[in-house]
Structure formats: C-alpha cells, structure tokens
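Section 4.2 – Deliverable D4.2 (structural model, holo form)

The reporting period included a commitment to supply a predicted holo structure for the target in complex with NAP. Inputs used:
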Amino acid sequence: MGKVMLISGGSRGIGAATARLAARDGWDVVVNYARNQDAARSVVAEVEAAGRKAVAIQADTGNPEDVARLFTESDAAFGRLDAFVNNAGIVNRMSRLDARDPADLQRIIAVNLTGAILGCAEAVRRMSTNHGGNGGSIVNVSSVASRLGGAGNYVDYAATKGGIDSLTIGLAQEVAGEGIRVNAVRPGVIDTDIHNDLGDAPGRVARLGATVPAKRAGTADEVAETIVWLCSDAASYVSMSLMEVSGAR
Ligand code: NAP
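Output (structure tokens):
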C-alpha cells in the first residue's frame, strides 16, 4: 500500500504543486480545498494520471469541525497517514494594522494559525507511535514574512506565520521520540494566485520578484520540491528546521 500525504489547501498554488510532485515520488494524496472544487478535481486527475490514488475533500480549515472531519474522511479513504502538509493559508487586503477590520483579523488567525495547530494535533494522533501509528512527517508552510514582519501591509499575516514557526519548533521536540519529524518551509515571493488577494496593483509578483536578491520570484514547484523532500526518507534526520525557499530574500 502506498504512503499517504494529506495536503491542506491542495487545490491551487504551492499545495497543488506539492500534490503533483508527491504523486511523481509515489505518494497517494488527499487534496483538501475550501471552495474551488474544479481545481481540486483537476489535481486529483493529475495524481491519478501519474498512477497514484487521490481524493478531494472539501473542508474550511478555519472551522475546527471541518478540520476534524477532513482527517476522518481521509482515514475513511486511505486508512493511514504518513505525511501532513499544513499549507492552507490566506492573506487579507494590504493595510496597516490600525485600519484592519477585527473580523478579518479573527478569520486570518482561524485559518492560518488555529486551523494549522488543530491539523497538527490530528496528524500527531494518527502518526505518533504513542498512539499506535508508524511515525511520519509534518511540513508547516510558513513565510519569510515571519521574520520580515510585513510592516504597513500585513503584520497580521506575518504574526500568524511567526506562530507557525513556533509551532514547528515546539512540536518537533514534543514528538521527535515518537517517529514524527516536524519542519517548516518559509517561501519568499512565489508566483501563485494568493498575490491577487492583497489588493495590490497588477504585476505584483514580477515587481516584487525583481527586488529579491535572486532577481526573480520563485515557482510553486520550487517550494513543492522542498516540501516533498522534507516528507521523504531522504530527510530522515531533518526536524525542527525552518527552511528558507526565498532566493535569499
Ligand atoms: P493560493 O495559490 O492562494 O492557494 C491557496 C490554497 O489554499 C488553495 O488550494 C485554497 O483552496 C486553499 N485554502 C485557502 N483557504 C482555505 C481554507 N480556509 N481551508 C482550506 N483550504 C483553503 O496560495 P499559495 O500561494 O499556494 O499559498 C499556500 C501557502 O503558502 C499559504 O500558507 C501561504 O501563506 C504560503 N506562502 C505563500 C507565498 C507566496 O508568495 N505565494 C509566500 C509565502 C508563504 P481553494 O482553491 O478552494 O480556494
């Protein structure tokens, strides 16, 4: 039976790229999505075309009941879990913090932080040898924003990613003796749809990409390669790392 990777936010961007590369490397994949069922179905079709199994599961990771249901539906589909890619994330429209609507603050914390923490707990309950599991790997998708801070634009988003880094450091130590490795990737400017949600002028990715020391934005595939490697046995002694995938940004 193939190893199973559950990817939150697997229908587009970095999550979708991770699903495709995971299938290439022999993983079966759970593709979680929030709204975009067509995109999720097309990722499932690509995984199947690569000869692996996949299911699409709708669940809003900003809703605790949905996070629990995502994992039980994944159990029903595959009966095992070997890797959890904690990728679902949102941004608010760019603004200073003192102009931020409290409802938008609550939503970004619910999706990017509470949902991510709950997802880790569900994954540990399934993979930890303390719970009868076989061990596994968790990769949390953070951001360089966690160390840059996002001043003037998205301090709220940066703070959620700072929380993801702390989650990674603490949980990695908590479950290292139970067969689970926990790492984070910190992408820089990556060419995905998420930039359209910031309310910035068109051409944001190219404009910002030119300011990166590597002189370009990264691709979703470049982040996905790192994630899939972190999930693999080739990374068997890598845990608690916060891996920059940022062209030196
Ligand atoms: P994206 O292209 O906007 O894709 C977001 C994915 O997450 C979609 O599959 C979306 O599902 C899903 N999603 C959004 N909200 C969700 C929710 N509440 N519940 C479940 N799924 C949800 O974004 P991306 O750029 O690939 O970002 C992925 C991760 O990378 C995020 O955590 C982001 O913060 C991080 N990141 C991105 C960049 C960058 O420059 N792109 C840089 C640093 C970090 P639907 O298709 O259903 O909407």
